[in-house]
Amino acid sequence: MAADPDSSAPGGSIGAIVILGGFMSVSAVYGKMRSALARRTGQPVYVVETHSMDWIPSLLPAGWLYVLRKLDRTVRRAAQIATSGRVTLIGHSAGGVLGRLYLSPEPFLGQVFGGLDWVGRLITLGSPHHNERRWLHGGMMARWVEARVPGARFTPQVQYCSVAGKLLRGDSQGSLRERQAYSFYEQIGGEGDAWGDGLVPVGSSLLAGSQQITLEGVGHFAGFGGSWYGTDDSIAAWWQACQPKGNSPGASPDGRG
Fold first, then answer.
1. E strand or H helix at 162, and its extent?
2. Domain count, the chain
3. Which domain holds residue 25?
4. DSSP single-letter state for residue 194
5. d(CA 198, CA 174)
């Protein structure tokens, strides 16, 4: 079962939010992010319940079904609360790539999820949409998804917003962190001498056709030092920036609130 919505969100909320974490993540690490989002938006926030072992099979397409089914159950549950019947889906890292696949009305290995009927907005945080790596960090997933549901495929039915962090520039001769970033960026984006969030280069995180946001000083996850996509200051920045023009910060994806 998916994690319950944060208790600080008021019962009369118009919208609802679902968070899908990244590769090898566990849902518990998004607890503080969930609470911060609920406080800021006044909406109930659900986190798709995942464990590290859930992601192991996702090295191959058949393994994505397990996480997609968990995502589908959580989204449908959250949509029952939303006045519009549609939710904001937030995908961190590989969760953002998988969220794009979830929207497709076409069968995936014989199963149709129909996420397009339930999701009004997709926000991706540090997601490797363009990934050169063959296996790790969602390389196969990113290329498979891009070939079938390229870019912001379902605009304007779904509002797409992709967020990149700009924390470190990769440097093969620099500090340990800069050398590590260089290696990650080179493997994911094809070029190590680039800016990124410490794991995913900026260019890989920005989805073609989406609203694109780059946040200075934001890392891929808490362990990268300083702010990451789930800290209060970062949430304030990307949530406001990803709002449809003319909507208030707590507005629902279809603009009713």
1. strand 159-166
2. 1
3. 17-166+200-241
4. S
5. 14
